[in-house]
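User: I'm writing a tutorial on reading structure tokens. Could you give me a worked example: one chain, its sequence, then its tokens, then a sentence or two explaining what the tokens reveal?
Assistant: Sure. Here is the example chain.
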Amino acid sequence: MIRGLYIGRFQPMHKGHLDVLRYILGQTDELIIAIGSAQESHTPRNPFTAGERFEMIRSVIREEGFDLSSIYIVPVEDVKRNSIWVSHVLSLVPHFDVVYANEPLATYLFEEAGFEVRKTLLFSRSSYSSTHVRESIVGGSDWQDLVPPSIFDYIRKKGGVERMVRINSTDKC
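And here are its predicted structure tokens:
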């Protein structure tokens, strides 16, 4: 049995994340999705709480018909000390066999700690990035096609669009 670890901020989860999720689930028996920067919320870069991101990810898992019993979702707060970050992650998540990551620092830190790190494909990276999704939402552009339907519905129902517009506004002239 192979259990993978996939870490992301998911601010918000988009169709690129979903493609990566499908890819990883095709290679593993179980998957741990670590919600990174779990302590962050209500900022332009991190507008959603860890609980909201958990609910969004779970709604996509249900929507896609993935086996919920083989997927664990764990919030992981930052420690701001790279030398102990992998130990911190290990203290919060169940055992895993392989890490799926593209981010250079995370890749380096897990490899340095002796873990196998597999790169994931970056599906339509120019369209599917959380930064692009957030900018589209705040700018009033069409963003519905960038995220899975359940994420679009969740953000709208929870007032996420209004929140993002307000936290990105300024009182400067």
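What the tokens reveal: The helical segments are 15-25, 50-64, 82-92, 104-112, 130-139, 149-157, 160-167. The chain has one domain: 3-167.
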